[in-house]
Amino acid sequence: MRAFINGCRNVVGLDGCHLKGKYGGCLLSATALDGQNGLDEHPVQEINFISDRQKGLRDVVHTLFPTSPHRHMYQNIKSHFKGSKLHTMFWNVAGAYKAKHFQNVKAFEYLMGEDPKSWCRAFFDHNSSCEHLSNNFSESFNNMIAKIREKPLCTLILMYGQLVMGLFYKRINACVGWVSGDLVPSAKKLLKLIFKKIKEYKVAGAVAGKVYEVTSIHSSIFTIDLDRKTCSCVQWQLRGFPCQHAVCVLQQVRPNWVQYCARYYLVDNYKITYASGMVPLEGPDDWEEPRATILPPLLIRKPDRPRKNRRKVYDETLPEKKPRCCSKCKQPGHNKTTCGGGPIGSNTKRKRIRVEVDG
């Protein structure tokens, strides 16, 4: 909890996954993001929650944190409105940084029945320094624990502790050589990518050292205020990191980039996040005997063989299958038995095998 308060963004992803052991169950997780966009488990300021709107989560968050924004929409709208075109239009609306870019869709009445703060970037809290629309970072944590979900409960707890402990140990060692008072490597890498695109913009000064106007190659105009750390595109305020328009202005004055980034992107904050580490859990031999009799839950075996992989949603993209190629000509669509030879000049020449030795 100290790591979350001191170093992570005030955004928490809520998710759960089913356990595949003998007695089943559900493992709930609360995941936060550090300055490197890495996961920090067990993650207080006003907290922004992100979830897939599972049954009960919405009501619990509203009861315990009535003033905190809760982002959840896409999984719910899919159950009411079908069609890939409509879903594409929804993502375009949710990804808009300004309210005036909001475009009505067929599901307009349904969408406006929900608070726009829960699904549209134009209404997100700027203090969160996070523009995530989905709960994918929590899903990636569920993928990390996929191999331990079928273990017995006691074994699962020990393996889970080892996973988190190893994660903290790996990251605190990785930042040993980082310079204090500087940006984390992922932030520097992002700046380098933005530097490659500054030629697409033209900068004009309005108030020296404070306000500038940036024009893109598409004739779009943006206003930059360096004192307030704002841009009319809203990306700087929402991410807590200079947008491409702000970088075009700042690179002319060679600034200290740390002054224009949120504290979550600083090396010092990253080190504080993982400084406490995690105490190893004791083995079962050192556990105290329970004072009460604990009975296992009722075991109800479902018919058929238990599933190993989850059911995919109808519109979820499937991984591309790699086509099988012939081992002789390296062309797809057949094997070496039915191979008629590749294009002229592409067949490999084998060394002739001698059947007898010259005397």
Gist of the model:
The protein is an alpha+beta fold. The protein has helices at residues 2-7, 57-64, 74-80, 84-94, 108-112, 136-144, 153-174, 185-195, 235-239, 244-250, 267-275, and strands spanning 11-18, 26-33, 39-41, 48-50, 70-71, 201-207, 211-216, 221-225, 230-231.
Describe this structure in words.
The chain is of the alpha+beta class. 28% of the residues lie in helices and 12% in strands. It has helices spanning 2-7, 57-64, 74-80, 84-94, 108-112, 136-144, 153-174, 185-195, 235-239, 244-250, 267-275; strands at residues 11-18, 26-33, 39-41, 48-50, 70-71, 201-207, 211-216, 221-225, 230-231. A five-stranded mixed β-sheet has the order 3-2-1-4-5, with helices on both faces. The longest helix has 22 residues, at 153-174.
What is the radius of gyration computed over CA atoms, rounded to a whole number of angstroms? 27 Å
Low-confidence stretches: none
What is the CA–CA distance across the termini?
85 Å
Going across the biggest sheet, name each strand in turn. 3-2-1-4-5
- Secondary structure: number of strands: 9
Secondary-structure element series: HEEEEHEHHHHHHEEEEHHH
- Global structural class: alpha+beta
Give structural attributes.
five-stranded mixed beta sheet, 359 residues, single chain, alpha+beta
Question: Topology, pairings included?
Answer:
Layout: H1 2-7, E1 11-18, E2 26-33, E3 39-41, E4 48-50, H2 57-64, E5 70-71, H3 74-80, H4 84-94, H5 108-112, H6 136-144, H7 153-174, H8 185-195, E6 201-207, E7 211-216, E8 221-225, E9 230-231, H9 235-239, H10 244-250, H11 267-275
Parallel strand pairs: 1-4, 4-5
Antiparallel strand pairs: 1-2, 2-3, 6-7, 7-8, 8-9
